[in-house]
Write a structure and sequence with these properties.
Blueprint: E1 10-17, H1 27-36, E2 40-48, H2 60-73, E3 77-80, H3 86-96, E4 99-101, H4 103-114, H5 118-133, H6 136-139, H7 159-194, E5 199-204, H8 210-218, E6 235-241, E7 245-251, H9 261-266, H10 268-275, E8 279-285, H11 291-304, E9 312-317, E10 328-331, E11 337-341, H12 350-361, E12 365-372, H13 377-385, E13 389-394, E14 400-407, H14 408-422
Parallel strand pairs: 1-2, 1-3, 3-4, 5-7, 5-8, 8-9, 9-11
Antiparallel strand pairs: 6-7, 10-11, 12-14, 13-14
Helix pairs in contact: 1-4, 4-5, 5-7, 7-10
Length: 431
């Protein structure tokens, strides 16, 4: 679509230090992003400024230095660790005679590589189109020319206007398809809510080990790698917990500082799994020296998508890389688990996580002894289907004596079913 320089695999990275914390980025994270995109960083140019320049983002002297480095090293793409305006990108491309990419464009490129499902590809394309909309004017050299020639003369729309119209139409089409996906997801969530199946969603900074932990718990075999945004498409799996029953565990896309708003908007349907979860497992890489800042960034994104009020259980991952790493559960003053220390890679502490999940999700339980006649064998089958029978024996008069333990919710539902089928209250069979 764009008439641009061919982008390649060798990049010069540009990082600018700003005094304000809100504008500051991390150079090591940029290197990880570039590596995740499959690009080789052949050089790094750093600078310090109080505010960005409107023309080149950096000063004119530093821009000339970047151009010289590109020429010397034979690089064919310049990647900035910051968000650039369309004008800044155009000026830098003209000066460096190569493709210039900002942080948002780099993240979008990684997402485009990672998308596997139809929904994921739609979400990425939507984010890319919204990003491109603001940059159309610099993507073409002929946009202001009107279509001419015999049969095409007149005041028709310019090429730029045509492209904008086509992009608006494509965005509208993708949005309609994603709305359909969102409705389907909503139906699934409502069905789980009716069945009162708890949903637990994994959240955390990208590369914190969410997918490795997901695989360790569920044996799902989803793609996990030591790279940023290894997981893009959400994965749901059923998990059985004692005293809780079936729960749904959701693996979601990782967060990152200054996550592009276009991505947040495009992944609205996916992120709703997080927004409507019963519990969030906030996975933290305890070996990362920026873990406090990463936690803050995740909190900001959760606030942006309206999921900040969902209860959280912190999961301190990668303790196998600590000298004094010991698997344990930290509790609050009421004895409720608030933090679990484990290693998803080695499996240390996984049973503690399951124990903490049971404590956080366990509903009120009912323990009763039932005595039912042999004619109510169907009820016995339901009790076994619910995995709630703790003991069984026969009485002298031929009745069945059953020890039963189940959640209060399942007990109420069973009482209603018995009343409808047998015309009698289940309480009448309780010893």
């Amino acid at each position: 679509m764009f008439d641009r320089y061919e982008s390649g695999e060798q990049a010069v990275l540009v990082h600018v230090d700003f005094p304000q914390e809100i504008d500051r980025e991390d150079l090591s994270e940029l290197k990880l992003l570039v590596s995740s995109a499959g690009v080789e960083a052949v050089g790094v140019v750093t600078a310090s400024r109080s505010t960005p320049s409107s023309r080149y983002f950096v000063g004119s002297g530093k821009a000339e230095e970047i151009a010289d480095v590109v020429k010397t090293l034979g690089a064919n793409v310049v990647i900035f660790n910051h968000s650039l305006t369309p004008t800044q990108e155009r000026n830098l491309e003209k000066l460096c005679s190569c493709r210039v990419l900002d942080r948002t464009g780099l993240i979008l490129d990684i997402f485009a590589q990672r998308a596997r499902t139809h929904e994921g590809k739609l979400q990425v394309e939507l984010a890319q189109l919204r990003h491109i909309q603001t940059r159309l004017v610099r993507g073409w050299t002929h946009l202001e020319r009107q279509k001419g020639g015999i049969g095409l003369r007149g005041p028709g729309e310019t090429q730029l206007e045509t492209d904008r119209r086509l992009i608006r139409g494509r965005i509208k089409n993708i949005q309609a398809r994603l709305d359909k996906v969102q409705r389907q997801r909503e139906q699934g969530r409502r069905a789980r809510q009716r069945a009162e199946i708890p949903t637990v969603s994994l959240v955390g900074y990208t590369n914190a080990g969410k997918s490795t932990l997901f695989n360790r718990i569920t044996e799902a075999g989803v793609y996990a790698a030591d790279q940023l945004f290894a997981t893009l498409d959400p994965t749901l799996r059923k998990l059985e917990l004692p005293d809780v029953g079936t729960i749904i565990l959701a693996d979601t896309v990782g967060f990152i500082r200054h996550l592009p708003h276009d991505l947040v908007a495009a992944f609205k349907a996916t992120l709703q799994e997080t927004q409507q979860a019963d519990l969030l497992l906030h996975v933290i890489d305890v070996t990362d020296e920026r873990q406090a800042d990463n936690i803050h960034q995740v909190t900001e994104v959760l606030d942006e998508i309206g999921a900040l009020d969902v209860p959280q259980l912190l999961v301190c991952n990668k303790i196998d890389q600590l000298d004094d790493g010991v698997a344990r559960i930290d509790t609050d003053d009421e004895g409720k688990p608030v933090r679990v220390w484990l290693s998803a890679q080695s499996g240390a502490g996984i049973e503690l996580l399951q124990q903490a999940l049971v404590q956080r999700l366990r509903p009120a339980m009912v323990n009763v002894s039932l005595r039912i006649p042999p004619s109510m064998g169907k009820l016995r089958g339901k009790l076994y289907a619910l995995k709630s029978v703790t003991s069984e024996s026969s009485t002298e008069d031929g009745q069945l004596a059953l020890g039963v333990r189940m959640s209060a919710v399942d007990w109420q539902r069973l009482c209603k079913q018995v009343a409808e089928e047998y015309g009698d209250s289940l309480q009448g069979f309780v010893e």
